[in-house]
């Protein structure tokens, strides 16, 4: 479980995130949605300890993210940010291998190599594993980064806008992979999403944010409500029932 108690991030007198109080259950996919500036990415980064909290407490699997040792936390929690800048020329396999660092400290064992191959195959990157990252398309590169975080084999996986810069077809493929990872590997995936309909189709739960606070949290059908979403996004949103579940119409 991810448990956030009265967490705050204070930027200035006008921009503050929190207080945030929420308990996100284990397993499945939970999506953070909301308008720009709602605090979605900030919340994710605070959970992943890439951004310090000013007040409150955040625990992941009963480990306090503020006080736990980095090496211990890295075995239960991994995070992928929007911006991934590797200045050196890496192959796909080398990149995915970085996911084993909390265990191998840079010296991959035979067991590590087996795990690397497992996630390269899982993300359909086998034919590309010896290609350099700068030779890949944006979608292929994004799959490689996701393979890297899954290769860390943490129970909790945090993804900041994993569909960023992907077209619709590649976005569908990415979400299918994440859904499969949650189902097959029992991962708890928390992801920031801009597209309400992708969140609705692939998530188990949705957390909607507005003005730095949690506006609503629940199962998909609870959050996919016209009045609720219209209020959160401050634009008219209608919900219709599609062939695969509720669909938001702007």
Spell the H/E element sequence.
EEEHEEHEHHHHEHEHEEHHEE
Radius of gyration: 18 Å
Compute the average pLDDT. 92
Low-pLDDT parts are none
Overall geometry? globular
Q: Tell me what portion of residues adopts beta-strand conformation.
A: 25-35%
Name the helicity range: 25-40%
Total helical elements: 10
Task: Map the helices and strands.
Layout: E1 2-10, E2 16-24, E3 28-33, H1 40-47, E4 55-60, E5 63-64, H2 70-73, E6 77-80, H3 92-97, H4 101-104, H5 110-122, H6 138-151, E7 156-160, H7 168-185, E8 188-192, H8 196-202, E9 205-210, E10 213-219, H9 220-223, H10 226-233, E11 238-242, E12 245-249
Parallel strand pairs: 3-8, 3-9, 6-7, 7-8
Antiparallel strand pairs: 1-2, 1-4, 4-5, 9-10, 11-12
Brief digest:
This protein is an alpha/beta fold.
What keyword list fits this structure?
250 residues, alpha/beta, four-stranded antiparallel sheet, 12 strands, globular
What does this structure look like?
With 250 residues, the chain is an alpha/beta fold. It contains ten helices and twelve strands. The protein has a six-stranded mixed beta sheet, with helices on both faces. Strand 11 and strand 12 form a beta hairpin. Helix 5 crosses helix 6. It starts with a strand and ends with a strand. The model has no long low-confidence stretch (mean pLDDT 92).
